[in-house]
Amino acid sequence: MSRLATSVVLGFHGCSKAVGTRILDGETDLIESDQEYDWLGPGAYFWENDAVRAREWAEDKVTLGRFKEAFVIGAVIDLGNCLDLLVREDLPLLRSAYDDLVAQRNATNSQMPRNGDLPHDAHKDKLLRKLDCAVIRNLHEIIANTPDDAPDRVEPFDTVRGLFTEGAPLYPGAGFYEKTHTQIAVRNVACIRGLFRPRD
Fold first, then answer.
1. Which superkingdom (predicted)?
2. Tens digit of pLDDT for each residue in 74-129?
3. 69 by DSSP, 3-state: which?
4. What is the dihedral of CA 72, 74, 78, 79, to 10 degrees?
5. Could you tell me if 185 and 160 are in contact, meaning their C-beta atoms sit under 8 angstroms apart?
């Protein structure tokens, strides 16, 4: 089912200026997120082709007191072997990983994780994606544990890509939302071909 993506895309990573300048200067590596609520599972997160949204995210962290100053890093990303959740053929992999996770939890009599809302999120966007994260983690684990000679073996994914609707409708009755975006979680840092500082 999986296939090599042919595209190279631009991604934008929101962070603090202190960390961002050190990354661009080669003093430290990109920070990979590994939280239980990460929308696309573990990886270094980028907003695809959207420096504005990356800056908004970083500025939100400044407002919350987590960053002193907002910063954005640009990246040239080769998607490589991409679990592309915008493409129909990759979606059954996720459903299969969900079914497997349900069977695991039933066998151990443990609860399934759930997606949830942040207390201050008036739009109920399910920003805490514990279920989705667990399913994607399980898919990566299934692939890692599949023998190399298995006929249905899928190669490990370099990147994961997904579309998220978020925020208020753009206008009454709209199907478009003010913070809708595409994100990429880079699992294989070799797919990041270069980093740059975007123009303001």
1. Bacteria
2. 999 999 999 999 999 999 999 999 999 999 999 999 999 998 877 776 667 677 88
3. coil
4. 30
5. yes
Pairing mode, strands 115-116 and 128-129: antiparallel
Cα separation, 171 vs 178, in Å, equals 9
DSSP letters for 167-179? SSBSSTT-S-BTT
| pTM for this entry | 0.91
Q: Report which of residues 119 and 158 the model is more confident about.
A: 158
Computed over every residue of the chain, the mean pLDDT equals 92
CA 17 to chain centre: 21
Rounded CA separation 79/8 (Å): 6
Distance CA 191, CA 193 (A): 6
Instruction: Supply the pLDDT for residue 121.
Output: 62
